[in-house]
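Much of our argument rests on the idea that a fold can be written as discrete symbols. In the encoding step, the backbone of a single protein was reduced to a row of integers, each denoting a local shape. We regard such an encoding as a compact summary of how the chain folds. The record that follows shows the chain in one-letter code together with its fold in token form:
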Amino acid sequence: MELGDLITMRAAVYEKYGPPDMVQIRDIARARMYYIDNIRIYLSILVILHHVAVAYGGSGGWFLNEAPTDTISPIIFLLFNALNQSYFMSFFFILAGYFTPRSLEKKGPANFMKGRLIRLGIPMIFFVVFLAPLTYWLVANLAHNLGISFYSIWRDVLKFTTLQNISFGHLWFLEVLIIFVLGYVIYSAQNENYQSNLVFYENSFPPNRIIITSIGVLAVTTFLVRIWFPINTWIFSVQPAHMVGYLFSFVVGILAYRGKWFDNLSTQQARFCGKIAIINTLVLSITISLTVGGGGSIDVFLGRISWQSLFNSVWESISYMSIVIWLLYFFRSRFNKQNRLLRWMAPNVYAAYIFHQIVVVAVMIPLLNVAWPSVIKFFTVSIIGVPLSFLVSYIAKKTPYANNVL
């Protein structure tokens, strides 16, 4: 067939059926990826709920804390936070790793790192210079009525003498991600066109024996790190106790992209992991209830040489693997689509993660003198704080140049 015949045929098709709908074509092309956007939304909401739980009695540190009003809610929040911590930030690193190779190959190393430094570095600087001092000012003046000027707090916050004194708060994730992507760029530099040969189980999801082996390796290495760096030990704004899992997750994301793992996860394997996740969560519930309810301390589970620390490392590794695999299948099979609300939320996920801290604190302050149970306050702040965080993010992205960063 000659070129002229093809042009004539195309013209006849356009005349009868109209030109192709490019919007529809783009939608079809990325339809199978909607579930990843939805996972990001879910994880971002979970981060907000996690920090609200910390504020009302869960484990961890926060800008503003209230003492629990009962003895049951701290156990509930502790269970909730322990379950979240076992997988949610690691899942973020998996997704970050998944999209890193394609972006590097498309943009090249210089433009890729420039884009990463802008998108990750500017929010970190903004947090240190403005967002953290503003949050401290709200707590000092509206929560504790100390009457301290913003300038005084800003000056004190910026009085760090070494890099170790700089706190990026919840944006430690961005700090670690910069290090990981830089490491991947250096690794990929040995390959022409920055196309890594890092391929493992191509066009098939890793079998259960590989998953079990990974759980064992991850548990042992995590336990060993926590002998010297227990949970809640912070160095350069990060916890070394979790770094093994985060690095593992970033590499898993890269391998998943190369091997097309997400597309090849079977129903049988995912459902098996879901059952393991339920059993593992029940084990955690019983352990925490017996420990805290019996007057014991969870500190022995956080690190050093103890069977409790080893148990926690094994439990976390099982929880991480089983929940992530099941959630991946669940969202791919059930939520590979978006309604109007989800389409609005998806591009605001990153900014919501950045701004949710000050939003949650602002919502908590009016409730400080309200005599409500901790659980009621948790649900109230969560119901208001989650949509408000996304709304603030949406507004922030409308400011000049912000959309290039957020």
Q: What stands out?
A: Residues 86-337 form one domain. The two ends are 50 Å apart (CA to CA).
